[in-house]
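Action item from last week, closing it out:
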Amino acid sequence: MSQPARAEAPTPSAPQEAARARADREAAVSGDEVVVTATRTDTRIVDAPATMSVVTGTELRRRPVQDLAEALENEPGIVINGIGMTRRGISIRGMSNEHLLTLVDGRRINDASANMAHVDFDLGWVPSIAIERIEVVRGPLSALYGSEALAGVVNVITRRPDRFEASALSLVGSRDGKGGDTAQLAALVGGPITDTLGVVAWGAYQHRDRTQGAQDPLQSELEGREALSGSIIGWWEPVQGQRFEIGQAAIDDDRARDTVTTSSPILYYEYQDHVTRAQTHGSYTGQWSWGEIQARVYRSVLQRVNERDQDQTPTQATKATNTVGDARITLNVFAGNRLTLGGEHRHETLRDSTVNTAGFKAVDHDALFVQDEWDIREGVSLTAGSRFDHHPNYGWQTSPRAYLVVEPVEGLSFRGGVGKAFKAPSLKQLSLEYITVAAGGRFIITGNPDLKPETSTSYELGTSYTGRGWNVGATLFQNDLHGLVETICVENCGIRGSERRAYVNVDRARVRGVELSGEVTPVATLSLSASYTYVDPRNLSDDQELAERPNHSATVKLAWQPSDATEFNVRGRYIGKQTVYQTVGSASVPVRLDDYDLWSLDASHDLNERLTLKAGVDNVFKKRLAETSALYSFAEPGRIFFVGLGVNL
């Protein structure tokens, strides 16, 4: 992936950082943001063959963001939901968090949720100080990226300073209540060393105290977190248009919470996860008048060790490794036509004593892809392509996609497309020998080598208009899902400790809805943006609503910059009513949970050329979901006051 274009170069001056934030907003309103995720090449966001949004690093560094869920919670079409054990995941347009592909600089990171339950380890790879921007694609991109991209793609673009700089950021948060205090400390240094060599390095420390449960103070509503992370990236450009890059990232992430056994004897104990992650990468990008070549190799490793006191049996240690090599060539075939051809090989291994008797399983994924971007005539462009993935269990799987963008007059755009996607079951799900105890000992789960891939067909039709200082947009979407993997009881149903469940393809589902968005900048110092999403998530197999998919959601943001040195932001999000299922006896009974809204305030002020003071309040009105219903799948921590300091040297 080529290095992204920037509105202006990152600089070591606080006022220039504020000017850059203003330029980012202007680019967002006018549609001039340059994005790369939808096509793997530089494209203006208004011309991109997908529905996209962008979160800039300058925006994230104004508030205490600890992971991707917090970074994206105010984006259109996104709802943060629970994935168990107090952790959260990202849902796009009513799709499962397991159908979202997360990338860092275009490289996939380990999909921890594929082989470990209730994990959010994929969300915390890069601190805000190292983020250039985050690109969010709402809609499947399996045609380019393969399995896991059924719902969309989140691509974290990291910073490459255009001049040598050093910066630091510290933020502390105090919760209005016991526990839940947060702290962050991060630093970045780097940039060009010579005309041809450059390096950038960052390190970060993140902390969050666990919080007490509303009904039972001896249990944690939110787990505590202690994380240390760092990265170093070097690049060499021997001649213009030729770039080599190598890098190493590593994270040590410790989690802890207080919980209780689910059967007699009742016993409170501490549950800890010690997680280490690392990624090593190298790449070459060459650009010529006729096109571009890119080749990359990278290796990602994730290890999880679980500990529990009070003689409770821990989860078995797990080590997941992905080694990926990919390459593409982009050809400017003729004026207005760009053809991309590429391939990928991915070797995935899993070391876990539960996966089989050997405690080890591996699989090779191979893929070829082709994409053609054709400007048919002025104001009309068509992007069409397909990916061909080979899986040892399923042979070749095809994921075609076509997307048309029409701009009949300047500023007015119509867009629409259709695409197919698939998701292969995980190594554990496909293992005949896999067996694990789940739900606090209530049942066991076993694998199924006869599983089929999950598949999706997605349709999208939208329009947008960009005027002078304002824009509006509307998109209709529908995802038809087949073969969703679920567990069902196959033996001793309802008998605690003896019930056995197995993975099967049981569900057909349809998720459809509408997405509205708009933004206006009436004056240079003021910006207002808002979005609304309606989702109808339906399980067609039993004609019931899919769980934890709010039918209505909305966001609003007001940014005011009265001077070059000062900025204020107000953010709000509304999460509508949603259906969850409560077990009553042997039956699963639908329950509707109430809607709620969350608001936050933040402000920043440049004390001088080098120092910026930051302060704000998250969850201003102290909404506490756990006090409303124990059926909410995750807890909001309540009101948090934060203050921080940014330093640019």
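Closing note: The domain at 14-648 is CATH 2.40.170.20 (Maltoporin; Chain A).
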